[in-house]
Amino acid sequence: MNKKIIVSGMRPTGKLHIGHYFGVIQNWVKLQDEFDCYYFVADWHALTTKYNQTEYLRQNVIDVAADWLASGLDPLKSTIYVQSHIPQVAQLHLLLSMITPQNWVERDPTLKDMTKILRLQKEEGNNESSSVSYGLLGYPVLMTADVMMMNANFIPVGIDQVAHIEISRDIIRRFNNMYNTDFFVEPEPKLTQIPLLKGLDGNKMGKSFNNDIKISDDEETTAKKIMTGITDRSRLRKTDIGHPDECEVIYDYWKIFGCEEEINEINSMCSKGLIGCADCKRKLAQKVNEYFAPIREKRREYEKNPDLVVEILNEGNKKAEKRAQEVLDKAKEVMKMY
Ligand code: SF4
User: Whole-model pTM?
Assistant: First the structure.
């Protein structure tokens, strides 16, 4: 029996952090055993907001792919490709843009979020490319083309993102109804429990907030960063009684990196004032470094040999393009195009 198809992508923002790893990649790795997975580096999506910051775009594509591969995405199981290398996506995007009502695009929650971010960046003077471009307005249509291009059954999302894929279902349904076909699948959300890993300052983890730990960081850098993590703010001396549940970063990390016994031990020692925060962080850094050691070792191999990453992407591009052409041909056929 044919496996159901999953499509998901990620913008090439540079080296990925451990929030990406736990929030997205780990789930992708699990899915590739059960589904026919298509994972793409969304470089055209990056241009919708960063069209004037392209100097690192190529390197960022390679960095993202290297992080995926080192983290366990397997090119023998999944098709790993670069969005801009599949010209059929641009053609389908154009066709879908003809049938998508303007008000659907304008009310899209993803677009609203991005527009808000751009406005804030403009107010803070942080981004010259802060106006909403024609390309950004079409973002939900391009996202739909990405998914419809592989005729995907599922899109992996967290519970708070379900509304974000509604527009893709609406556009595909409209396309099917308009051209009297049921060939194109309305993708469903594949819900996942995504553990939210906060940044070391307690805010959302992000490269631009300077509060992240990269998958590719070395051990020393990781340890240094963890020492800056916020803890129970009421604790001033190491003998003060601590409140692990109010230690919103370090103790939360323990819950991910420690085993049950270790988590209980930290909880008990902290609550009795038997461990200082510096010691607690040092132990945590060791756990984080142990966890990522094999991934980082593989990551270093890809870093030494970026041509291997490019080769894997080229193979994935070929596979994705073959499927994309079949789907595009079908779309043109039902539209009775010449
Ligand atoms: Fe947090 Fe550990 Fe300090 Fe307790 S000892 S407040 S768990 S960093």
Answer: 0.92
